[in-house]
Task: inverse folding
């Protein structure tokens, strides 16, 4: 059997070393290349005819999802094993929107045993079959359910309130009326189940601030995380700079 040429996109040296040793045990043998961030991984992968890749998800420059999106747009036959310590719903949700039809890919959590990780990699890169971690499948079930899965505009609204934007600023950023903003937020609150949690009493009034509660629930579900919010903050600051310029 011809040896595999595998690109590992991983910024953590210890995790790269683990994968390198794991692939060295494959009977077919592997020629390994490493990219230390998502942008470098994309540049390297585009040089391959049919890229075989193991990619972390949280990486500098481009995260694993952004890297995969850009690569699959140009090389839909690329086979990618996502390996991560995160099963966050925001990643599973984003991934479900970018996988091309007929594309083979995998998603394995780093917490698995060495044997299971090896099996997942073999299944995707050699046997050409998809392999999804059982823990990730549970999250996929939630993202595919119409009563709990967030639409793109609901997720956008979640990001905006997570960044601390008022209704008026959201309206400016998203080209909406205030009523349109409130409609999106109400839809978001319903999907997160906040309408079932909220209660009112004479002593305290409403029990929850729904904006704050939505962010707390979203973090618990894995719809948000600090790493990706940093990226969203950078994008918002760019928009805010242009918005302030336009008001002068």
Result:
């Amino acid at each position: 059997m011809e040896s595999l040429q595998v690109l590992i996109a991983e910024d953590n040296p210890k995790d790269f070393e683990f994968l390198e040793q794991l692939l060295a045990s494959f009977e077919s043998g592997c020629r390994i290349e490493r990219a230390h961030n998502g942008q470098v991984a994309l540049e390297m992968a585009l040089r391959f005819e049919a890229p075989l890749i193991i990619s972390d998800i949280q990486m500098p420059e481009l995260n694993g999802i952004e890297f995969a999106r850009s690569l699959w747009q140009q090389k839909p036959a690329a086979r990618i094993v996502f390996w991560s310590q995160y099963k966050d719903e925001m990643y599973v949700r984003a991934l479900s929107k970018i996988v091309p039809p007929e594309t083979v890919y995998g998603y394995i959590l780093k917490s698995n045993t060495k044997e299971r990780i090896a099996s997942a990699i073999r299944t995707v890169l050699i046997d050409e079959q998809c392999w999804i971690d059982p823990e990730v499948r549970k999250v996929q079930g939630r993202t595919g359910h119409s009563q709990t899965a967030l639409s793109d505009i609901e997720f956008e609204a979640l990001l905006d309130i997570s960044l601390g934007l008022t209704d008026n600023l959201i309206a400016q950023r998203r080209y909406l009326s205030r009523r349109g903003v409130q409609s999106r937020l109400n839809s978001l609150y319903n999907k997160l189940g906040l309408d079932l949690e909220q209660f009112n009493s004479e002593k305290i009034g409403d029990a929850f601030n729904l904006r704050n509660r939505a962010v707390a629930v979203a973090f618990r579900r894995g719809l948000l995380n600090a790493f990706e919010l940093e990226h969203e903050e950078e994008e918002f600051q760019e928009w805010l700079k242009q918005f302030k310029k336009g008001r002068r």
Q: What stands out?
A: The beta strands are 4-9, 30-35, 52-55, 79-84, 105-109, 131-132, 200-201, 205-206. The radius of gyration is 21 Å.
